[in-house]
Specification:
By secondary structure, the chain is α+β, with helices and mostly antiparallel strands. Helix content is 50%, strand content 14%. The protein has helices at 3-16, 18-74, 82-92, 137-140, 157-176, 215-234, 263-278, 306-349, 364-412, 420-447, 460-478, 496-513, 578-581, 586-596; strands at residues 95-100, 103-107, 124-126, 182-185, 191-194, 240-245, 248-253, 286-291, 456-459, 481-486, 491-494, 519-526, 536-538, 546-552, 600-606, 610-617. The protein has a six-stranded mixed beta sheet.
Length: 625
């Protein structure tokens, strides 16, 4: 098979299943869109939810970490940290555990009989001298030391009171000048005056006196400078002087023969010196563990908050609504032609034989609609034919009955004498009436499949000879010559009465349409291919067996009339009467009789040259020896 033929066959299969493919395509499209939309929404919403949950968790961790670092900055031990840890656990909803190596310092939700087993990695390391810059970014700018660690720089109560009194005087002075200043107290207890823009008051209203160091602070600074310069000396660098200025640590380089210290080395030595100086004043380094209550095992399912769960639920509902809308739209598009077809079928059921449906596309529904239209058209034609047949039957029966009634009423009224001529006329009308009734009975039996055949082996030549003998007087009266040309050896298995009836109807029809001096030829031979294309045919089929032809030299049949020659009550010339044109049932009976024998009948005609009716019968089985 060629590639084009293969493609054609595949296309034919796809076209034949186009409705199925459309349904599958709609299902797949809806499923893909639903999955994609749901996945997109869930990913987006989950990502947002995760970020929010992570942000909340990070905020909780930062809150816990900040509180514990602050505690460590203000206490030298963890002995009293229990209440703080318990309060943090209640505030965050987590289990907070603080450990120092292998020892548990505090646990916000201890489990009786179950010692705490820490995870391999703690949540954070609590060290106020080296804070986590992600949890406490502000401390990263001060060498990693929490600003709440003051150690020896904490002011005494007397120094704090004296400086606060000075700060209040400065604030009063500034406010009298129209400046809304305020006092800010640092972790060491030292007050500072801040302007509305956040800047310090500098030298205004004597604010510079607030920057003078107390004796305890100078002592601590001397110790810090010693530690810093020792660090620089170990690196072979010159000395510096460390001074706290406006909440930050500033350095001034001193004259020395040693190389000038780079800024990075100075910062490192200041940070290490401060850490070394402050270490005795803070709690030891501890490990922080934050987990779910009851130490639940972590799962792959994110424990989202109620608001995020509700948001995801609404998003899923929206996707479901869109999916239902798309499915409904596709379903309506598919069901609409079926509804039209149903309405048309209901109209036909109600008796409207003109019901039709619009055919669009080429799928199964379109082909079903086309078949329905063809069925409806055929039914309309049959209904019209039935009505016409009833009218024709009524007409065919009315005419002889009216003639018989007329003659009998004339005799009854004394207008006509019941002589032989009148009786002959009434008898002729009765014979014609009986002929019509017999024809209708034969057609009815054939339509119902009840036409009984008593078959036997017949010589075709004998059947034709008997038919010519029976129609000889009529042909002679009409001036028509009957000719037989048949092979004497041809035989068929047929009902002799019905076969002579079929051939006789054709001969009678041929005599009726042949002018005086014409010829009717009855020919029988072995079946041959269909005649030349130049000749017009109706009902033609090919086959093997015996072919019987009845030809006349009449005027022929018009091409537009040829397809109707076997219709009931059809006459080539509408003006012909029942007496001259027959009942219009003869050819219909011929077709039914031949089909009952398993054969076919066809008509060929060339206008002006006569007509030929061809009977094709299956061959008789071989005679037993």
């Amino acid at each position: 098979m060629s590639r084009d033929a293969s493609a054609g066959s595949v296309f034919a299969v796809l076209a034949g299943r186009s409705l199925l493919l459309r349904l599958l395509a709609v299902a797949v499209l809806v499923s893909v869109c639903s999955i994609a939309a749901t996945a997109w929404v869930v990913v987006r919403m989950t990502a947002v939810a995760i970020r929010q949950e992570q942000g909340k968790a990070l905020a909780d961790d930062a809150k816990t970490y900040d509180a514990l670092v602050g505690y460590a900055a203000r206490h030298r031990t963890w002995d009293a940290v229990g209440p703080t840890v318990a309060e943090l656990g209640r505030a965050t909803g987590h289990r907070i555990v603080l450990r120092d190596g292998d020892r548990t310092l505090a646990d916000s939700a201890p489990l009786p009989g179950r010692p705490y087993v820490p995870s391999p990695k703690p949540t954070a390391i609590v060290n106020p001298l080296a804070v986590d810059p992600q949890l406490l970014p502000a401390a990263a700018r001060d060498g990693g030391i929490d600003p709440r660690v003051v150690g020896p720089y904490r002011l005494s109560d007397a120094d704090r009171a004296r400086l606060q009194q000075t700060a209040r005087s400065v604030v009063t002075c500034l406010r009298s000048a129209g400046i809304a200043a305020r006092t800010v107290v640092g972790p060491s207890g030292r007050p500072a005056v801040r302007m509305p823009d956040g800047q310090s008051a500098a030298n205004r209203c004597g604010a510079a006196t607030l920057n003078s160091h107390m004796p305890s602070e100078r002592k601590a600074l001397d110790t810090l400078n010693g530690l810093v310069n020792s660090c620089l000396a170990r690196r072979g660098l010159g000395e510096v002087t460390v001074l706290p200025l406006d909440g930050a640590w500033q350095t001034e380089r001193t004259e020395s023969s040693a190389p000038r210290a780079p800024d990075k080395d100075v910062q490192d030595c200041v940070a290490s010196g401060r850490a070394e100086q402050l270490e005795p004043y803070v709690a030891p380094v501890a490990q922080l563990y934050a987990s779910s209550p009851g130490d639940r095992t972590a799962t792959t399912f994110l424990d989202l908050s109620a608001s995020n769960k509700l948001r995801i639920a609404w998003s899923a509902a929206l996707v479901l609504l869109v999916t239902v809308a798309v499915t409904a739209f596709a379903g309506i598009r598919l069901v609409r032609p079926l509804r039209r077809l149903t309405l048309a079928a209901q109209r036909m059921e109600a008796g409207d034989v003109s019901a039709r449906v619009e055919v669009t596309g080429g799928d199964e529904i379109a082909r079903l609609s086309a078949a329905f239209n063809a069925m409806s058209q055929r039914r309309e034609q049959l209904e019209s034919a039935r009505k016409a047949m009833v009218n024709d039957v009524a007409h065919e029966l009315r005419t002889p009955l009216s003639n018989i009634r007329g003659w009998l009423e004339a005799v009854e009224d004394g207008v006509a004498e019941p002589d032989e001529e009148l009786v002959a006329s009434v008898l002729e009308e009765a014979v014609l009436l009986q002929h019509v009734i017999d024809d209708l009975r034969d057609l009815s039996a054939a339509d119902a499949g009840e036409l009984r055949l008593i078959t036997e082996r017949l010589g075709v030549a004998d059947v034709l000879a008997q038919t010519v003998q029976g129609h000889g007087p009529r042909a002679e009266a009409a001036g028509v010559r009957l000719v037989v040309a048949a092979d004497a050896e041809l035989t068929v298995l047929a009902d002799p009465v019905r076969l002579r009836q079929a051939v006789g109807n054709l001969v009678s029809n041929a005599i009726r349409h042949t002018p005086p001096g014409g010829t009717v030829l009855l020919k029988a031979a072995g079946d041959l291919p269909v005649a030349a294309p130049a000749e017009r045919t109706a009902g033609a089929t090919t086959g093997a067996g015996v072919r019987v032809e009845v030809s006349d030299t009449g005027p022929g049949i018009a091409p537009e009339d040829l397809p109707h020659v076997f219709d009931r009550f059809w006459r080539a010339e509408k003006s012909r009467s029942r007496r001259t044109g027959g009942s219009g049932l003869g050819l219909s009976i011929v077709r039914k009789l031949i089909e009952a024998h398993g054969g076919t009948v066809e008509a060929r005609s060339t206008l002006g040259s006569g007509s030929t009716f061809v009977l094709r019968l299956p061959p008789a089985p071989p005679a037993p020896r």
